[in-house]
Input
Amino acid sequence: MKKNTHLFIVDPQNSFCEVVNVRDQGTVHSGELCIAQRNTDGTIVPIAWNDMIVLGDFIKNDVENDISGITISLDTHPYIHVSHPSWFKRIDNGLPPEPFTTLHIVKDKIVDAAGVEYTTTNPNTYNWTKKAIDFYGVHVIWPPHCLQGTPGNNVVAPLQDALIQWTQKTGLEVQYVIKGLSPMVEQFSAIKAKLVDPNDRTTELNLPLLNRLSVCDDILFSGEALSHCVNNTITDIANVEGWFNGRELIRKVTLLRDTTSNVPGFEKMGEDFLQEMQGMGMRVTTTKEYRA
Output
């Protein structure tokens, strides 16, 4: 009997993959967190975009129809979101934090690494936000990205082309999982938010998704970024307890390493994740090795 092989692609979106000039990102709403490498000569290597080209070719070259299903998670945010600057303002001058500011709780106050104190733009969210940051330990402010209804939220073109071809060939639809819509919590994982928003069930453990994966023989993983959303999604799968048994699920997972990259500066986070998951039974290979 033919294996049930499922391809799970984490956040293959323009906000993470498309190279856009920094001064234009706020108007075209794309490329805000592009995973790319800037060389000393000023040229830019679009690392994540190239990952998706490789993945698209892998899907197009599935001549034996080995891929029996595809699920894609889409990071999707409102503009006013706890991970965006607009959520906060400085106590001293009312200005929002700059992107990539890290916030912590010190002496029951929200402060950045320099000790500057912040409050929330909406006073009604202050207590919850303080609780959330205390839970996270460190809270990173990202530039507004993957905003719902903008180009940055869309799947990158070379992969979308491959997905359409796969649907035309198999008669099957790609399944989409939306994550990050709750403005109150950060959510890297497609399985659940680290801290559940009690007023938003989409932040809870995604049981239908786990059920879909549990019946598969093999689960191929790809997407962006290895250090963050891929890391958190696979780690959450491995740590599921109860009927789904994450320790069994993780042994079905194969990571296609040439279709995922770390956020620059977070390479150790990605490598630590790989080491931990391989120790639990996850396999790591490339698209070429997988079909060799």
Q: What stands out?
A: The first strand starts at residue 5 and ends at 10. The domain at 5-79+146-290 is CATH 3.40.50.850 (Rossmann fold).
